[in-house]
Amino acid sequence: MYGAKQFLLAGDKDSAVIQSLDDVKVRFGGEMEARHEPSPLGFLRNFIAEGGVAVHLTMYGLPYQEVVPDIPHDKPIVVVVGGAKVSREYYEMCQYNVAIGNQPHSEVAALAGFLERLNDGVSPPDDFKGGKLEIHPTERGKDMRQEE
C-alpha cells in the first residue's frame, strides 16, 4: 500500500487481520509482510536506534502539511497509527507527531492521507508480482482476470 513494505499489528493478537492481509497478497500479489508485533515499544526503540524515523499519526500532532517536508526520505520510516489508548511513550519516542486533522477521524484515512502526501501524491503502483488475479482499469464495470 503506497510503498509500505510491512504491516505490524500491535496490541491484542488478531490472527484474522493478518490472515486477511496475507489472503489479499496471495490473490493480488505484492511483497508486503504482515505480522503481529508482541513488543511494539521495543520494536520502535530498536528501529529508532538503528537510524529509522518514527512518525506518530495523532489528531493532537502538528499539521501534516507543515511536517511532511521535514521528514527525511533517505531513511527507513515507521508510521505509528493508534486509537484513543495510545500511551504517552509513543508521543515522546517518535520524532514526529503528525495530525491529518484535529478532530476524530478514521485511522485508515489518516494513514492513506499521510502516505499520499509523503509520496508526493499517489502514483500508480508497480504491477504487483505473484498474484492470482489482475485488475485491468476500466471506465465502467469490473475487469479482473485470473492469471494462469
Would you kindly provide a written description of the structure presented here, covering whatever features stand out?
There is one protein chain. With about 150 residues, the protein is an alpha/beta fold. The strands form 3 sheets. Strands 4-3-5 form a 3-stranded parallel beta sheet. The relative contact order is 0.19. β1, α1 and β2 form a beta-alpha-beta unit. The two termini are about 25 Å apart. Helices cover about 30% and strands about 25% of the residues. The protein contains 5 helices and 7 strands. The protein has a single domain, classed as SPOUT methyltransferase, trefoil knot domain (Alpha/beta knot).
Furnish the topology, listing elements before pairings.
Blueprint: E1 6-9, H1 15-28, E2 33-36, H2 40-49, E3 53-63, H3 64-67, E4 77-81, H4 88-93, E5 96-99, H5 107-118, E6 133-135, E7 144-146
Parallel strand pairs: 1-2, 3-4, 3-5
Antiparallel strand pairs: 6-7
Keywords:
148 residues; alpha/beta; Alpha/beta knot; 3-stranded parallel β-sheet; two-stranded parallel ribbon; 5 helices; 23% strand
How would you sum up the global shape? globular
Measured between the Cα atoms of the first and last residue, the distance is 25 Å
Secondary-structure class: alpha/beta
CATH architecture: 3-Layer(aba) Sandwich
Quote the beta fraction. Answer: 15-25%
Q: Could you give a short account of the major beta sheet?
A: 3 strands, parallel
- Along the chain, the helix and strand elements come as EHEHEHEHEHEE
Low-confidence stretches are none
- What is the CATH topology? Alpha/beta knot
Give the strand line-up of the largest sheet. 4-3-5
Round the mean pLDDT to the nearest integer and report it: 90
Query: How many domains comprise the coordinates?
Result: 1
